Amino acid sequence: MTTPARATHHWSDVAGAYADTFAHYCAGTIPLLLERARLLPGATALEVGAGTGLLSARIVETDARLTATEPDPGMLAAARQVLPAETRLVRAGLPRLPFATGLFDVVVANFVVNHVDDPRAGVSELARVTRPARQVLFTVWPSGTTSQGQLFARVLDASGVTPPPADLLPPHLDFERTRDGVAALATGAGLEAVSVVEVPISWRIRPDHFWRGISAGIGVIGRALQAQPEAVRTRLRASYDDLSRDLLDGDDLVFSATALLAEGVTP
């Protein structure tokens, strides 16, 4: 089993906060993933990077035979709480999965490729464990600042805090976070009939819940927040409360985003 250092460093020990916050943000792609996967009863399906189990639970509803992997033990335990006892859960992650070549009818990875040390090796591994002439689907976040990132940039500026440097992969391992770049990533992994579509996402969340998520260190914003001393975090919270108040729709913040969904067929 391989648990990539980059992925586990960013997501370990945050399962509870993630389940209440960013899991619902990432769930915005689930309807289209299920539509594109066209799962039939009895089909063998693999979800790589199941997180707290929201997509896995929907896959189970199709009567496909699901195996789900997740490298973080806290996330895996959370997924177990929402999945039937007979669902196979495996502690494993990209770029090496403990499965035979060509084992699954459909393989899905929702916002996993963003977080691995070697995205090309990761997508190649998704293809390896998929049966010939069957589907691989994965999602990524494209380049650009998210609407919640824009809010946090304003919070940093209002608090007089310099944004931390971006956490980037080495250039020889990274890929272009655009439709063309994701298509090239999939094609380079050997997938055929590749298509990449944009998926609009709208995420409603209470301001205090969002702060809880980033306070746990989730995502780029969360890591930036955790890097600050306690006194600075207190100042940032005051700026956040002030700036987020003007963005409320009722009791909620509403963040808009666009994800990229890639689909390809194994040769």
**For the CA atoms, what is the radius of gyration?**
19 Å
Class from secondary-structure proportions? alpha/beta
CATH architecture of the domain at 5-144 and 170-202 and 256-265: 3-Layer(aba) Sandwich
Helix fraction by DSSP (H/I, runs of at least 4): 40-55%
The main pleated sheet reads as: 7 strands, mixed
Explain what the structure shows.
The protein starts with a helix and ends with a strand. It has helices spanning 5-11, 15-20, 22-26, 30-37, 54-60, 73-82, 119-128, 147-159, 179-188, 207-215, 219-226, 230-245; strands at 44-48, 65-69, 88-90, 104-110, 130-140, 192-205, 253-265. Helix 8 (147-159) packs across helix 12 (230-245). The longest helix is centred in the last third of the chain and has 16 residues, at 230-245. Strand 1, helix 5 (54-60) and strand 2 (65-69) form a beta-alpha-beta unit. A seven-stranded mixed β-sheet has the order 3-2-1-4-5-7-6. The protein has a domain at 5-144 and 170-202 and 256-265: Vaccinia Virus protein VP39 (Rossmann fold), CATH 3.40.50. It is globular and about 55 Å long. Mean pLDDT is 94; it is low at 1-9. With 267 residues, the protein is α/β, with parallel strands linked by helices.
